Amino acid sequence: MTRSEKRIRRLVVGEETFLWSVRHSHRRDEQGRNVDCAETLTLRRHGARGRLRLVFRDRPGKLVPDGYPMFSGAVGTVDGPLLNLHEPGTVRAALDEALARGWDPDEPSGLELDGWAVFEAVAARRA
């Protein structure tokens, strides 16, 4: 069964429920080619107004899926770890790291972070 990128998933942490999704995005250049690929993990606490967006943009030395051989949700470094953003354990590690860095789920403006800025810390939490 194929995983739907548009499906909102639940993550229960203690007494709280968080909702999350993973999306792939890019823009097209003048020739119609896909460029600037990104994987985005979006989290919010159920009933809260704020959102956390971790955006992993394609850049040198970083791996973002755009077809074979990378699978949807995979982000990593050329010579380092690989994270699957579709795995609840990875989402929990990202949530814990964001909370440790001061993310407030009730902040209505939300927060967007460069996913690569927290990548190593999230990978360490997964190890």
UniProtKB/TrEMBL annotation:
Name of the molecule in the record: DUF397 domain-containing protein
Organism per entry: Streptomyces albiaxialis
